[in-house]
Protein backbone atom coordinates (compact mmCIF):
# COMPACT_ATOMS: atom_id res chain seq x y z
CA UNK A 1 0.00 0.00 0.00
CA UNK A 2 2.73 2.43 1.03
CA UNK A 3 4.64 1.28 -2.06
CA UNK A 4 1.74 1.96 -4.39
CA UNK A 5 1.20 5.47 -3.02
CA UNK A 6 4.94 6.30 -3.18
CA UNK A 7 5.07 5.02 -6.73
CA UNK A 8 1.99 6.90 -7.93
CA UNK A 9 3.23 10.18 -6.45
CA UNK A 10 6.63 9.56 -8.05
CA UNK A 11 4.91 8.84 -11.36
CA UNK A 12 2.96 12.10 -11.18
CA UNK A 13 6.09 14.10 -10.37
CA UNK A 14 8.20 12.49 -13.10
CA UNK A 15 5.30 12.93 -15.54
CA UNK A 16 5.30 16.62 -14.69
CA UNK A 17 9.07 16.82 -15.28
CA UNK A 18 8.65 15.13 -18.66
CA UNK A 19 5.72 17.35 -19.59
CA UNK A 20 7.55 20.55 -18.65
CA UNK A 21 10.61 19.43 -20.63
CA UNK A 22 8.33 18.70 -23.60
CA UNK A 23 6.66 22.10 -23.36
CA UNK A 24 10.11 23.68 -23.23
CA UNK A 25 11.07 21.73 -26.38
CA UNK A 26 8.01 23.10 -28.17
CA UNK A 27 6.07 19.83 -28.54
CA UNK A 28 2.31 19.89 -29.04
CA UNK A 29 -0.24 18.48 -26.58
CA UNK A 30 0.04 14.87 -27.79
CA UNK A 31 3.84 14.96 -27.67
CA UNK A 32 3.68 16.39 -24.16
CA UNK A 33 1.40 13.59 -22.95
CA UNK A 34 3.48 10.85 -24.60
CA UNK A 35 6.68 12.22 -23.07
CA UNK A 36 4.96 12.55 -19.67
CA UNK A 37 3.94 8.86 -19.90
CA UNK A 38 7.39 7.72 -21.06
CA UNK A 39 9.24 9.62 -18.36
CA UNK A 40 6.82 8.51 -15.65
CA UNK A 41 6.67 4.84 -16.58
CA UNK A 42 10.15 4.23 -18.09
CA UNK A 43 11.91 3.63 -14.78
CA UNK A 44 9.24 1.27 -13.46
CA UNK A 45 9.06 -0.77 -16.67
CA UNK A 46 12.85 -1.10 -16.67
CA UNK A 47 12.75 -2.19 -13.01
CA UNK A 48 10.12 -4.85 -13.72
CA UNK A 49 12.08 -6.17 -16.74
CA UNK A 50 15.24 -6.43 -14.59
CA UNK A 51 13.26 -8.28 -11.90
CA UNK A 52 11.55 -10.57 -14.41
CA UNK A 53 8.06 -9.22 -13.61
CA UNK A 54 6.14 -9.48 -16.89
CA UNK A 55 4.01 -7.82 -18.07
CA UNK A 56 5.32 -4.79 -16.11
CA UNK A 57 2.86 -3.52 -13.51
CA UNK A 58 2.74 -0.12 -15.24
CA UNK A 59 0.94 -1.83 -18.13
CA UNK A 60 -1.46 -3.86 -15.99
CA UNK A 61 -3.14 -1.37 -13.66
CA UNK A 62 -4.89 1.64 -15.16
CA UNK A 63 -3.94 4.26 -12.51
CA UNK A 64 -0.34 3.95 -13.68
CA UNK A 65 -1.44 5.31 -17.03
CA UNK A 66 -4.20 7.68 -15.96
CA UNK A 67 -2.08 9.61 -13.43
CA UNK A 68 0.74 10.62 -15.82
CA UNK A 69 -1.64 11.29 -18.73
CA UNK A 70 -3.73 13.69 -16.62
CA UNK A 71 -0.58 15.24 -15.16
CA UNK A 72 0.78 15.83 -18.67
CA UNK A 73 -2.49 17.47 -19.73
CA UNK A 74 -2.61 19.72 -16.67
CA UNK A 75 1.01 20.81 -17.16
CA UNK A 76 0.31 21.55 -20.83
CA UNK A 77 -2.60 23.82 -19.90
CA UNK A 78 -1.13 25.51 -16.84
CA UNK A 79 2.64 25.37 -17.15
CA UNK A 80 4.70 28.05 -15.40
CA UNK A 81 6.32 30.82 -17.41
CA UNK A 82 9.06 29.78 -19.81
CA UNK A 83 11.79 31.51 -17.83
CA UNK A 84 11.12 29.26 -14.85
CA UNK A 85 10.70 25.99 -16.75
CA UNK A 86 14.30 24.90 -16.45
CA UNK A 87 14.24 25.09 -12.66
CA UNK A 88 10.87 23.36 -12.57
CA UNK A 89 12.22 20.38 -14.56
CA UNK A 90 15.22 20.04 -12.24
CA UNK A 91 13.17 20.31 -9.02
CA UNK A 92 10.50 17.86 -10.15
CA UNK A 93 13.21 15.53 -11.35
CA UNK A 94 14.83 15.60 -7.88
CA UNK A 95 11.58 14.68 -6.11
CA UNK A 96 10.74 12.01 -8.66
CA UNK A 97 14.21 10.54 -8.32
CA UNK A 98 13.83 10.25 -4.54
CA UNK A 99 10.41 8.62 -4.75
CA UNK A 100 11.41 6.19 -7.50
CA UNK A 101 14.66 5.07 -5.90
CA UNK A 102 12.79 4.38 -2.66
CA UNK A 103 9.85 2.61 -4.32
CA UNK A 104 12.10 0.66 -6.69
CA UNK A 105 14.45 -0.58 -3.98
CA UNK A 106 11.50 -1.53 -1.75
CA UNK A 107 9.75 -3.41 -4.57
CA UNK A 108 12.90 -5.38 -5.34
CA UNK A 109 13.40 -6.27 -1.65
CA UNK A 110 9.74 -7.29 -1.33
CA UNK A 111 10.28 -9.77 -4.19
CA UNK A 112 13.17 -11.35 -2.27
CA UNK A 113 16.00 -9.80 -4.31
CA UNK A 114 19.32 -9.72 -2.37
CA UNK A 115 20.11 -6.28 -0.82
CA UNK A 116 23.01 -5.45 -3.16
CA UNK A 117 20.93 -6.12 -6.28
CA UNK A 118 17.84 -4.41 -4.85
CA UNK A 119 19.87 -1.27 -4.24
CA UNK A 120 21.14 -1.22 -7.85
CA UNK A 121 17.72 -1.91 -9.31
CA UNK A 122 16.26 0.92 -7.20
CA UNK A 123 18.91 3.28 -8.56
CA UNK A 124 18.25 2.17 -12.13
CA UNK A 125 14.54 2.59 -11.65
CA UNK A 126 15.06 6.15 -10.41
CA UNK A 127 17.53 7.13 -13.09
CA UNK A 128 15.81 5.34 -16.00
CA UNK A 129 12.77 7.53 -16.57
CA UNK A 130 14.72 10.77 -16.66
CA UNK A 131 17.38 9.27 -18.93
CA UNK A 132 14.73 8.14 -21.43
CA UNK A 133 13.16 11.62 -21.31
CA UNK A 134 16.49 13.29 -22.07
CA UNK A 135 17.47 10.85 -24.84
CA UNK A 136 14.10 11.31 -26.58
CA UNK A 137 14.57 15.08 -26.49
CA UNK A 138 18.17 14.67 -27.71
CA UNK A 139 19.79 16.00 -24.53
CA UNK A 140 22.70 14.38 -22.72
CA UNK A 141 20.99 12.79 -19.67
CA UNK A 142 21.13 14.66 -16.36
CA UNK A 143 22.77 11.65 -14.71
CA UNK A 144 25.85 12.22 -16.89
CA UNK A 145 25.97 15.98 -16.40
CA UNK A 146 25.10 16.50 -12.76
CA UNK A 147 27.81 15.32 -10.37
CA UNK A 148 25.59 14.39 -7.50
CA UNK A 149 22.85 12.63 -9.41
CA UNK A 150 23.96 9.00 -9.26
CA UNK A 151 25.40 9.47 -5.77
CA UNK A 152 22.08 10.82 -4.47
CA UNK A 153 20.25 7.84 -5.99
CA UNK A 154 22.74 5.43 -4.48
CA UNK A 155 22.38 7.02 -1.03
CA UNK A 156 18.61 6.54 -1.15
CA UNK A 157 18.97 2.90 -2.14
CA UNK A 158 21.46 2.26 0.64
CA UNK A 159 19.16 3.78 3.27
CA UNK A 160 16.17 1.67 2.19
CA UNK A 161 18.28 -1.49 1.99
CA UNK A 162 19.93 -0.88 5.36
CA UNK A 163 16.54 -0.29 6.98
CA UNK A 164 15.29 -3.56 5.49
CA UNK A 165 18.32 -5.54 6.66
CA UNK A 166 18.08 -4.03 10.17
CA UNK A 167 14.35 -4.75 10.33
CA UNK A 168 13.33 -1.08 10.83
CA UNK A 169 9.73 -0.05 10.03
CA UNK A 170 9.50 0.57 6.25
CA UNK A 171 7.31 3.71 6.38
CA UNK A 172 9.72 6.07 8.20
CA UNK A 173 12.71 4.56 6.39
CA UNK A 174 11.08 5.28 3.01
CA UNK A 175 10.36 8.84 4.11
CA UNK A 176 13.95 9.41 5.24
CA UNK A 177 15.41 7.86 2.08
CA UNK A 178 13.24 10.00 -0.19
CA UNK A 179 13.99 13.16 1.77
CA UNK A 180 17.72 12.40 1.66
CA UNK A 181 17.77 12.04 -2.15
CA UNK A 182 15.75 15.22 -2.66
CA UNK A 183 17.87 17.16 -0.15
CA UNK A 184 21.15 16.12 -1.78
CA UNK A 185 19.88 17.02 -5.24
CA UNK A 186 18.31 20.31 -4.26
CA UNK A 187 21.43 21.31 -2.32
CA UNK A 188 23.56 20.53 -5.37
CA UNK A 189 21.22 22.49 -7.63
CA UNK A 190 21.02 25.45 -5.27
CA UNK A 191 24.79 25.62 -5.01
CA UNK A 192 25.06 25.45 -8.83
CA UNK A 193 22.51 28.21 -9.40
CA UNK A 194 24.71 30.59 -7.50
CA UNK A 195 28.13 29.48 -8.70
CA UNK A 196 29.74 29.71 -12.10
CA UNK A 197 30.14 26.28 -13.64
CA UNK A 198 33.46 25.25 -15.11
CA UNK A 199 33.63 24.12 -18.70
CA UNK A 200 30.06 25.09 -19.62
CA UNK A 201 28.25 21.90 -18.73
CA UNK A 202 25.35 23.44 -16.83
CA UNK A 203 22.66 22.87 -19.43
CA UNK B 1 -0.56 -18.13 -39.27
CA UNK B 2 -2.36 -14.86 -39.93
CA UNK B 3 -0.22 -13.36 -37.15
CA UNK B 4 3.03 -14.52 -38.73
CA UNK B 5 2.12 -13.09 -42.14
CA UNK B 6 0.97 -9.77 -40.64
CA UNK B 7 4.16 -9.55 -38.64
CA UNK B 8 6.48 -10.37 -41.54
CA UNK B 9 4.81 -7.81 -43.80
CA UNK B 10 5.06 -5.26 -41.01
CA UNK B 11 8.72 -6.16 -40.56
CA UNK B 12 9.41 -5.64 -44.26
CA UNK B 13 7.63 -2.29 -44.28
CA UNK B 14 9.35 -1.01 -41.13
CA UNK B 15 12.67 -2.28 -42.48
CA UNK B 16 12.06 -0.21 -45.61
CA UNK B 17 11.28 2.86 -43.51
CA UNK B 18 14.50 2.38 -41.54
CA UNK B 19 16.52 1.77 -44.69
CA UNK B 20 15.14 4.87 -46.42
CA UNK B 21 15.85 6.98 -43.32
CA UNK B 22 19.39 5.57 -43.26
CA UNK B 23 19.93 6.34 -46.95
CA UNK B 24 18.64 9.85 -46.28
CA UNK B 25 21.15 10.20 -43.41
CA UNK B 26 23.96 9.18 -45.74
CA UNK B 27 24.86 5.83 -44.16
CA UNK B 28 26.69 3.16 -46.18
CA UNK B 29 25.22 -0.22 -47.14
CA UNK B 30 26.07 -1.92 -43.82
CA UNK B 31 24.63 0.94 -41.79
CA UNK B 32 21.49 0.83 -43.92
CA UNK B 33 21.03 -2.91 -43.29
CA UNK B 34 21.69 -2.62 -39.55
CA UNK B 35 19.18 0.22 -39.23
CA UNK B 36 16.65 -1.73 -41.32
CA UNK B 37 17.04 -4.69 -38.92
CA UNK B 38 16.84 -2.53 -35.79
CA UNK B 39 13.75 -0.66 -36.96
CA UNK B 40 12.05 -3.84 -38.14
CA UNK B 41 12.79 -5.97 -35.08
CA UNK B 42 12.92 -3.37 -32.27
CA UNK B 43 9.18 -3.26 -31.67
CA UNK B 44 8.78 -7.05 -31.65
CA UNK B 45 11.73 -7.61 -29.32
CA UNK B 46 10.35 -5.00 -26.93
CA UNK B 47 6.93 -6.67 -27.06
CA UNK B 48 8.42 -10.09 -26.27
CA UNK B 49 10.45 -8.68 -23.37
CA UNK B 50 7.32 -7.02 -21.94
CA UNK B 51 5.43 -10.32 -22.30
CA UNK B 52 8.28 -12.38 -20.81
CA UNK B 53 8.83 -14.35 -24.04
CA UNK B 54 12.58 -15.13 -24.07
CA UNK B 55 14.51 -15.39 -26.26
CA UNK B 56 12.36 -13.03 -28.40
CA UNK B 57 10.88 -14.75 -31.44
CA UNK B 58 12.70 -12.31 -33.75
CA UNK B 59 15.97 -13.98 -32.69
CA UNK B 60 14.72 -17.57 -32.97
CA UNK B 61 13.26 -17.87 -36.48
CA UNK B 62 15.42 -16.93 -39.43
CA UNK B 63 12.76 -15.29 -41.64
CA UNK B 64 12.53 -12.48 -39.07
CA UNK B 65 16.11 -11.62 -39.90
CA UNK B 66 16.22 -12.47 -43.59
CA UNK B 67 13.19 -10.38 -44.57
CA UNK B 68 14.45 -7.04 -43.16
CA UNK B 69 18.05 -7.67 -44.30
CA UNK B 70 16.94 -8.28 -47.88
CA UNK B 71 14.54 -5.34 -47.71
CA UNK B 72 17.35 -3.08 -46.52
CA UNK B 73 19.58 -4.23 -49.36
CA UNK B 74 16.88 -3.72 -51.97
CA UNK B 75 16.11 -0.22 -50.70
CA UNK B 76 19.81 0.64 -50.73
CA UNK B 77 20.13 -0.40 -54.36
CA UNK B 78 16.84 0.99 -55.67
CA UNK B 79 15.76 3.78 -53.37
CA UNK B 80 13.49 6.52 -54.75
CA UNK B 81 14.98 9.94 -55.51
CA UNK B 82 16.16 11.95 -52.56
CA UNK B 83 13.44 14.54 -52.89
CA UNK B 84 10.79 11.91 -52.27
CA UNK B 85 12.52 10.09 -49.43
CA UNK B 86 10.92 12.04 -46.61
CA UNK B 87 7.41 11.15 -47.79
CA UNK B 88 8.45 7.54 -48.32
CA UNK B 89 9.66 7.22 -44.72
CA UNK B 90 6.42 8.66 -43.36
CA UNK B 91 4.17 6.51 -45.56
CA UNK B 92 6.05 3.29 -44.83
CA UNK B 93 6.08 4.18 -41.15
CA UNK B 94 2.28 4.53 -41.21
CA UNK B 95 1.72 1.10 -42.77
CA UNK B 96 4.28 -0.51 -40.47
CA UNK B 97 2.65 1.07 -37.45
CA UNK B 98 -0.74 -0.35 -38.42
CA UNK B 99 0.60 -3.86 -39.01
CA UNK B 100 2.68 -3.91 -35.81
CA UNK B 101 -0.04 -2.59 -33.53
CA UNK B 102 -2.41 -5.21 -34.89
CA UNK B 103 0.10 -8.07 -34.71
CA UNK B 104 1.42 -7.00 -31.29
CA UNK B 105 -2.01 -6.71 -29.70
CA UNK B 106 -3.09 -10.06 -31.20
CA UNK B 107 0.08 -11.79 -29.97
CA UNK B 108 -0.43 -10.47 -26.45
CA UNK B 109 -4.09 -11.58 -26.43
CA UNK B 110 -3.11 -15.02 -27.77
CA UNK B 111 -0.79 -15.43 -24.76
CA UNK B 112 -3.68 -14.74 -22.38
CA UNK B 113 -2.72 -11.16 -21.50
CA UNK B 114 -5.71 -9.14 -20.19
CA UNK B 115 -7.27 -6.83 -22.85
CA UNK B 116 -6.10 -3.55 -21.28
CA UNK B 117 -2.48 -4.71 -21.11
CA UNK B 118 -2.62 -6.32 -24.57
CA UNK B 119 -3.77 -3.03 -26.04
CA UNK B 120 -0.85 -1.11 -24.44
CA UNK B 121 1.72 -3.73 -25.45
CA UNK B 122 0.39 -3.61 -29.02
CA UNK B 123 0.83 0.16 -29.05
CA UNK B 124 4.35 -0.09 -27.63
CA UNK B 125 5.24 -2.74 -30.18
CA UNK B 126 4.07 -0.47 -33.01
CA UNK B 127 5.72 2.67 -31.70
CA UNK B 128 8.96 1.04 -30.49
CA UNK B 129 10.70 0.26 -33.78
CA UNK B 130 10.23 3.72 -35.22
CA UNK B 131 11.34 5.35 -31.96
CA UNK B 132 14.55 3.31 -31.93
CA UNK B 133 15.18 4.28 -35.58
CA UNK B 134 14.77 7.97 -34.82
CA UNK B 135 16.89 7.89 -31.64
CA UNK B 136 19.74 6.10 -33.45
CA UNK B 137 19.67 8.75 -36.17
CA UNK B 138 19.49 11.49 -33.53
CA UNK B 139 16.02 12.71 -34.46
CA UNK B 140 13.21 13.44 -32.02
CA UNK B 141 10.88 10.41 -32.51
CA UNK B 142 7.84 10.81 -34.75
CA UNK B 143 5.56 9.76 -31.89
CA UNK B 144 6.51 12.97 -30.05
CA UNK B 145 6.20 15.23 -33.08
CA UNK B 146 3.13 13.97 -34.91
CA UNK B 147 -0.11 14.66 -33.07
CA UNK B 148 -2.04 11.72 -34.29
CA UNK B 149 0.66 9.07 -33.97
CA UNK B 150 -0.05 7.63 -30.53
CA UNK B 151 -3.80 8.10 -30.98
CA UNK B 152 -3.75 6.11 -34.23
CA UNK B 153 -1.83 3.31 -32.53
CA UNK B 154 -4.25 3.31 -29.61
CA UNK B 155 -7.24 3.14 -31.97
CA UNK B 156 -5.80 0.07 -33.69
CA UNK B 157 -5.18 -1.66 -30.36
CA UNK B 158 -8.72 -0.89 -29.16
CA UNK B 159 -10.27 -2.34 -32.34
CA UNK B 160 -8.28 -5.60 -32.07
CA UNK B 161 -9.01 -5.93 -28.35
CA UNK B 162 -12.71 -5.18 -28.77
CA UNK B 163 -12.97 -7.73 -31.56
CA UNK B 164 -11.29 -10.30 -29.32
CA UNK B 165 -13.57 -9.58 -26.35
CA UNK B 166 -16.68 -9.71 -28.56
CA UNK B 167 -15.50 -12.95 -30.16
CA UNK B 168 -15.44 -11.59 -33.71
CA UNK B 169 -13.37 -13.43 -36.37
CA UNK B 170 -9.72 -12.26 -36.02
CA UNK B 171 -8.92 -11.97 -39.76
CA UNK B 172 -11.38 -9.22 -40.71
CA UNK B 173 -10.82 -7.46 -37.37
CA UNK B 174 -7.05 -7.35 -37.99
CA UNK B 175 -7.65 -5.98 -41.48
CA UNK B 176 -9.97 -3.25 -40.20
CA UNK B 177 -7.61 -2.31 -37.35
CA UNK B 178 -4.60 -2.05 -39.68
CA UNK B 179 -6.57 -0.02 -42.23
CA UNK B 180 -7.82 2.30 -39.51
CA UNK B 181 -4.31 3.09 -38.22
CA UNK B 182 -2.97 3.67 -41.74
CA UNK B 183 -5.98 5.81 -42.69
CA UNK B 184 -5.68 8.03 -39.63
CA UNK B 185 -1.95 8.51 -40.15
CA UNK B 186 -2.15 9.13 -43.91
CA UNK B 187 -5.01 11.57 -43.42
CA UNK B 188 -2.98 13.47 -40.85
CA UNK B 189 0.08 13.51 -43.12
CA UNK B 190 -1.91 14.56 -46.17
CA UNK B 191 -3.48 17.42 -44.25
CA UNK B 192 -0.02 18.48 -43.00
CA UNK B 193 1.54 18.40 -46.45
CA UNK B 194 -0.94 21.00 -47.64
CA UNK B 195 -1.23 23.16 -44.55
CA UNK B 196 1.25 25.43 -42.83
CA UNK B 197 2.33 24.01 -39.49
CA UNK B 198 2.37 26.21 -36.43
CA UNK B 199 5.58 26.71 -34.54
CA UNK B 200 7.83 24.93 -37.04
CA UNK B 201 7.56 21.35 -35.78
CA UNK B 202 6.96 19.62 -39.11
CA UNK B 203 10.33 17.90 -39.46
CA UNK C 1 35.43 -19.70 -15.28
CA UNK C 2 36.84 -18.85 -18.71
CA UNK C 3 33.57 -17.05 -19.39
CA UNK C 4 33.79 -14.94 -16.25
CA UNK C 5 37.37 -13.88 -16.99
CA UNK C 6 36.55 -13.07 -20.65
CA UNK C 7 33.56 -11.07 -19.54
CA UNK C 8 35.39 -9.10 -16.84
CA UNK C 9 38.21 -8.18 -19.22
CA UNK C 10 35.62 -7.15 -21.81
CA UNK C 11 33.85 -5.08 -19.16
CA UNK C 12 37.09 -3.29 -18.23
CA UNK C 13 37.89 -2.56 -21.87
CA UNK C 14 34.40 -1.31 -22.71
CA UNK C 15 34.40 0.75 -19.50
CA UNK C 16 37.64 2.36 -20.67
CA UNK C 17 36.10 3.11 -24.08
CA UNK C 18 33.08 4.71 -22.38
CA UNK C 19 35.27 6.66 -19.98
CA UNK C 20 37.53 7.98 -22.75
CA UNK C 21 34.48 9.00 -24.81
CA UNK C 22 33.06 10.77 -21.74
CA UNK C 23 36.35 12.60 -21.11
CA UNK C 24 36.35 13.62 -24.75
CA UNK C 25 32.78 14.95 -24.35
CA UNK C 26 33.90 17.04 -21.38
CA UNK C 27 31.94 15.25 -18.63
CA UNK C 28 33.05 15.48 -15.00
CA UNK C 29 34.31 12.57 -12.91
CA UNK C 30 30.83 11.29 -11.94
CA UNK C 31 29.61 11.46 -15.51
CA UNK C 32 32.71 9.57 -16.63
CA UNK C 33 32.11 6.79 -14.11
CA UNK C 34 28.41 6.51 -14.93
CA UNK C 35 29.14 6.29 -18.65
CA UNK C 36 31.90 3.75 -18.01
CA UNK C 37 29.39 1.60 -16.07
CA UNK C 38 26.66 1.98 -18.68
CA UNK C 39 28.93 1.12 -21.59
CA UNK C 40 30.49 -1.81 -19.75
CA UNK C 41 27.28 -3.34 -18.43
CA UNK C 42 24.76 -2.35 -21.12
CA UNK C 43 25.54 -5.25 -23.45
CA UNK C 44 25.49 -7.88 -20.70
CA UNK C 45 22.23 -6.62 -19.21
CA UNK C 46 20.63 -6.64 -22.65
CA UNK C 47 21.91 -10.20 -23.21
CA UNK C 48 20.46 -11.39 -19.90
CA UNK C 49 17.10 -9.76 -20.61
CA UNK C 50 16.97 -11.45 -24.04
CA UNK C 51 17.83 -14.79 -22.41
CA UNK C 52 15.32 -14.31 -19.58
CA UNK C 53 18.03 -14.28 -16.89
CA UNK C 54 16.68 -11.95 -14.15
CA UNK C 55 18.02 -10.12 -12.32
CA UNK C 56 20.91 -9.72 -14.82
CA UNK C 57 24.19 -11.09 -13.50
CA UNK C 58 25.80 -7.64 -13.83
CA UNK C 59 23.55 -6.49 -10.97
CA UNK C 60 24.09 -9.55 -8.76
CA UNK C 61 27.88 -9.95 -8.42
CA UNK C 62 29.90 -6.97 -7.20
CA UNK C 63 32.99 -7.40 -9.46
CA UNK C 64 30.79 -6.51 -12.43
CA UNK C 65 30.31 -3.09 -10.87
CA UNK C 66 33.68 -2.59 -9.20
CA UNK C 67 35.77 -3.30 -12.32
CA UNK C 68 34.17 -0.67 -14.59
CA UNK C 69 33.90 1.91 -11.77
CA UNK C 70 37.61 1.64 -10.99
CA UNK C 71 38.45 1.61 -14.70
CA UNK C 72 36.43 4.78 -15.21
CA UNK C 73 38.22 6.49 -12.32
CA UNK C 74 41.66 5.45 -13.57
CA UNK C 75 40.90 6.70 -17.09
CA UNK C 76 39.62 9.98 -15.70
CA UNK C 77 42.87 10.54 -13.77
CA UNK C 78 45.34 9.25 -16.37
CA UNK C 79 43.69 9.57 -19.78
CA UNK C 80 45.94 9.94 -22.84
CA UNK C 81 46.27 13.29 -24.51
CA UNK C 82 43.17 14.66 -26.24
CA UNK C 83 44.62 14.28 -29.71
CA UNK C 84 44.86 10.53 -29.25
CA UNK C 85 41.50 9.99 -27.56
CA UNK C 86 39.56 9.27 -30.72
CA UNK C 87 41.85 6.40 -31.70
CA UNK C 88 41.83 5.10 -28.14
CA UNK C 89 38.01 4.90 -28.12
CA UNK C 90 38.00 3.01 -31.41
CA UNK C 91 40.74 0.55 -30.41
CA UNK C 92 39.25 -0.20 -26.99
CA UNK C 93 35.87 -0.57 -28.63
CA UNK C 94 37.29 -3.17 -31.03
CA UNK C 95 38.77 -5.29 -28.22
CA UNK C 96 35.63 -4.96 -26.09
CA UNK C 97 33.49 -5.97 -29.06
CA UNK C 98 35.53 -9.14 -29.58
CA UNK C 99 35.43 -10.14 -25.91
CA UNK C 100 31.72 -9.43 -25.52
CA UNK C 101 30.62 -11.23 -28.68
CA UNK C 102 32.60 -14.28 -27.60
CA UNK C 103 31.41 -14.20 -23.98
CA UNK C 104 27.82 -13.43 -24.96
CA UNK C 105 27.58 -16.24 -27.52
CA UNK C 106 29.18 -18.70 -25.11
CA UNK C 107 26.83 -17.73 -22.27
CA UNK C 108 23.80 -18.18 -24.50
CA UNK C 109 25.04 -21.60 -25.69
CA UNK C 110 25.76 -22.65 -22.08
CA UNK C 111 22.11 -21.93 -21.23
CA UNK C 112 20.98 -24.27 -24.01
CA UNK C 113 19.96 -21.59 -26.52
CA UNK C 114 19.90 -22.90 -30.12
CA UNK C 115 23.06 -21.96 -32.13
CA UNK C 116 21.34 -19.47 -34.46
CA UNK C 117 19.82 -17.54 -31.56
CA UNK C 118 23.02 -17.74 -29.48
CA UNK C 119 24.95 -16.19 -32.32
CA UNK C 120 22.52 -13.27 -32.62
CA UNK C 121 22.40 -12.70 -28.86
CA UNK C 122 26.21 -12.68 -28.76
CA UNK C 123 26.26 -10.04 -31.50
CA UNK C 124 23.67 -7.94 -29.69
CA UNK C 125 25.59 -8.25 -26.45
CA UNK C 126 28.75 -7.01 -28.17
CA UNK C 127 27.08 -4.17 -30.04
CA UNK C 128 24.71 -3.08 -27.24
CA UNK C 129 27.12 -1.40 -24.82
CA UNK C 130 28.79 0.75 -27.45
CA UNK C 131 25.43 1.73 -28.95
CA UNK C 132 24.14 2.87 -25.54
CA UNK C 133 27.37 4.85 -25.01
CA UNK C 134 26.98 6.63 -28.36
CA UNK C 135 23.26 7.35 -27.93
CA UNK C 136 23.82 8.83 -24.45
CA UNK C 137 26.52 11.12 -25.87
CA UNK C 138 24.24 11.97 -28.81
CA UNK C 139 26.41 10.39 -31.48
CA UNK C 140 25.20 8.10 -34.25
CA UNK C 141 26.33 4.63 -33.02
CA UNK C 142 29.55 3.18 -34.48
CA UNK C 143 27.64 0.12 -35.66
CA UNK C 144 25.75 2.33 -38.13
CA UNK C 145 28.78 4.25 -39.33
CA UNK C 146 31.55 1.65 -39.60
CA UNK C 147 31.03 -0.81 -42.45
CA UNK C 148 32.71 -3.75 -40.86
CA UNK C 149 31.32 -3.42 -37.34
CA UNK C 150 28.31 -5.73 -37.49
CA UNK C 151 30.08 -8.12 -39.85
CA UNK C 152 33.02 -8.48 -37.43
CA UNK C 153 30.61 -9.20 -34.57
CA UNK C 154 28.77 -11.75 -36.67
CA UNK C 155 32.02 -13.50 -37.62
CA UNK C 156 32.97 -13.88 -33.95
CA UNK C 157 29.57 -15.32 -33.08
CA UNK C 158 29.74 -17.79 -35.98
CA UNK C 159 33.20 -19.03 -34.89
CA UNK C 160 32.08 -19.62 -31.29
CA UNK C 161 28.87 -21.31 -32.39
CA UNK C 162 30.62 -23.51 -34.95
CA UNK C 163 33.18 -24.56 -32.34
CA UNK C 164 30.37 -25.47 -29.98
CA UNK C 165 28.46 -27.48 -32.60
CA UNK C 166 31.64 -29.29 -33.67
CA UNK C 167 32.54 -30.02 -30.04
CA UNK C 168 35.91 -28.23 -30.17
CA UNK C 169 37.55 -27.13 -26.88
CA UNK C 170 35.96 -23.81 -25.86
CA UNK C 171 39.15 -22.05 -24.66
CA UNK C 172 41.08 -21.93 -27.98
CA UNK C 173 37.85 -21.30 -29.89
CA UNK C 174 37.08 -18.29 -27.69
CA UNK C 175 40.60 -16.97 -28.21
CA UNK C 176 40.37 -17.34 -32.00
CA UNK C 177 36.92 -15.75 -32.16
CA UNK C 178 38.01 -12.76 -30.09
CA UNK C 179 41.19 -12.31 -32.11
CA UNK C 180 39.21 -12.51 -35.35
CA UNK C 181 36.80 -9.76 -34.34
CA UNK C 182 39.62 -7.49 -33.14
CA UNK C 183 41.69 -8.16 -36.27
CA UNK C 184 38.84 -7.36 -38.62
CA UNK C 185 38.00 -4.16 -36.78
CA UNK C 186 41.60 -2.99 -36.42
CA UNK C 187 42.29 -3.73 -40.08
CA UNK C 188 39.24 -1.71 -41.09
CA UNK C 189 40.30 1.16 -38.83
CA UNK C 190 43.90 1.09 -40.02
CA UNK C 191 42.82 1.15 -43.64
CA UNK C 192 40.46 4.06 -42.87
CA UNK C 193 43.12 6.09 -41.11
CA UNK C 194 45.19 6.06 -44.26
CA UNK C 195 42.49 6.41 -46.86
CA UNK C 196 40.15 9.26 -47.65
CA UNK C 197 36.61 8.45 -46.64
CA UNK C 198 33.81 9.05 -49.09
CA UNK C 199 30.96 11.28 -48.06
CA UNK C 200 32.49 12.39 -44.78
CA UNK C 201 31.16 9.68 -42.43
CA UNK C 202 34.37 8.98 -40.53
CA UNK C 203 33.36 10.60 -37.26
Describe the structure.
Three copies of one chain form a homotrimer. Chain A is an all-alpha fold and 203 residues long. Chain A has one domain. Helices cover 77% and strands 0% of the residues of chain A. Chain A is built from eight helices and no strands. Chain A has helices at 2-24, 29-51, 63-78, 85-110, 115-136, 142-145, 149-166, 170-194. Chain A is globular and about 45 Å long. The N and C termini of chain A lie far apart (38 Å). Chain A binds chain B through residues 22, 25-31, 33-35, 45, 49, 52, 54-56, 59-60, 62, 65, 135-138, and chain B through 49-52, 108, 113-114, 116-117, 120-121, 124, 131, 135, 138-141, 143-151, 199-201.
Residue fraction in strands of chain A: under 5%
Number of helices of chain A: 8
How many domains, in number, for the residues of chain A?
1
| Largest interface, counted by CB within 8 Å of the partner chain's CB | A-B, 25 and 30 residues
* Unreliable stretches of chain A: 194-203
Helix-residue proportion of chain A: over 70%
Largest sheet of chain A: none
The mean pLDDT of chain A is 84
What is the fold's blueprint, element by element?
3 copies of one chain form a homotrimer.
Chain A: H1 2-24, H2 29-51, H3 63-78, H4 85-110, H5 115-136, H6 142-145, H7 149-166, H8 170-194
Helix pairs in contact in A: 1-2, 1-3, 1-4, 2-3, 2-5, 4-5, 4-7, 4-8, 5-7, 7-8
Amino acid sequence: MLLVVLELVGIAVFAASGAVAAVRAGLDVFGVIVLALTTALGGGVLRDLLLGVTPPSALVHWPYLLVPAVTGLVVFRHHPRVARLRRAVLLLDAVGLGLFVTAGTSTALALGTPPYTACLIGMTSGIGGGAVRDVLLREIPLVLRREIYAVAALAGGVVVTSGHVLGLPPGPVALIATALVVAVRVLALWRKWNAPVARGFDA
